[in-house]
Amino acid sequence: MTLRIIDSHVHFWTIGGPGHSWPDADWPAIHRDFLPADLRAAAADTALAGAVLVQSQPDDRDTDWMQATAAEDDLVLGIVGWAALDAADASQRIATLAARPKLVGLRPMLQGIDDTDWILKPALDPAIEAMIAGGLRFDALIQPRHLPAIATFADRWPNLPIVIDHGAKPAARNNQFEPWAEGIAALAARPNVWCKLSGLRTEQAPDQPPAELAPYVSHLIESFGSKLMFGSDWPVLLHAGDSYADWIATVHALAALDRNAAERLFFGAANDFYGLEQTA
C-alpha cells in the first residue's frame, strides 16, 4: 500500500550548533548532524510529502536555528519550537514565535522535568493564553506518570489543541500495559487531545521485536481513531536500529488498516491537527 505521508515528528540538529546539548557521544547512532538533505535521503524510497520539524533542545537558540534552517525548505510543512513557559517574558516570546512562517506549535520537554505536575502551575497560565491567542498547538512530550496531569491540563484549556508525543512512551521494554492504557483512553476522550504513533521502538529493549508493540499500537488506534497521526521520530529512530522505511513497514503491519483509515493515519490527521492545508 503506497500512501503519501506527512510525518508529524522529525528532528534536525548540528552537533555543537546553537543551543545544542543532546545527543552526546553516549548515543553513537545519532551523534552527528541531521539536516533536510539527510531526511530526504532517509525517506527516498517512501512517499514522504512533508514533515513537521520538532524541537530537540530546550533552548531559544535552537528554535531560532530551526526556523532559519527550515523556513524556506518545502519539505518542512510546520515547525514545533520551544519556549520557556515560566519565563517573565514568555507571552512576548510566544507572540513573536507565533508570527513566524511555519511555526505551528511549542513543546516544553516535560519528560525531563522532575515535577510531574509542573504544567499545572498557575505561573504558566500567561504562556498558555499566549499560545491560544497565537493559534499554536501544544506537543506533550510525556511519560505515563504525566497522564493524569495532562488530562487536568486539557480540561483546563479546552481551546488548546494538544498532541501526545510517542504515545506517552509506554513501558514497552517491560511489556507493561497498565496504568498506561487506562490513562491513554481517558485522555483520548478529551476532544482537544490527539496522539502521535511514533517513538515506540526506542521504548523497547534492543533485542525486542517490533511485533511486541502490537498491543500498544492497537490500543492507540482504538482510543484515538481519527485523532492518531503517524510520526517517525527520525533520526532518534536510528538508535533502535530501524531505518525510516522499517518504521513505516512496522506501522502498516501492526495497524492493519483499510485504505481510508491508513490515509487518515499517514496523511490526514497531521494535516488537520497542525493546519498544514496540504491536499492528498
From TrEMBL:
Residues 6-276 form the Amidohydrolase-related domain. One of its GO terms (molecular function) is hydrolase activity. InterPro entries: Amidohydro-rel, Metal_Hydrolase, Metallo-dep_Lactonases. Pfam families: Amidohydro_2 (PF04909). Coiled coil: none annotated. Belongs to the metallo-dependent hydrolases superfamily. This is Amidohydrolase-related domain-containing protein. It comes from Sphingomonas sanxanigenens DSM 19645 = NX02. The lineage of its organism: Bacteria, Pseudomonadati, Pseudomonadota, Alphaproteobacteria, Sphingomonadales.
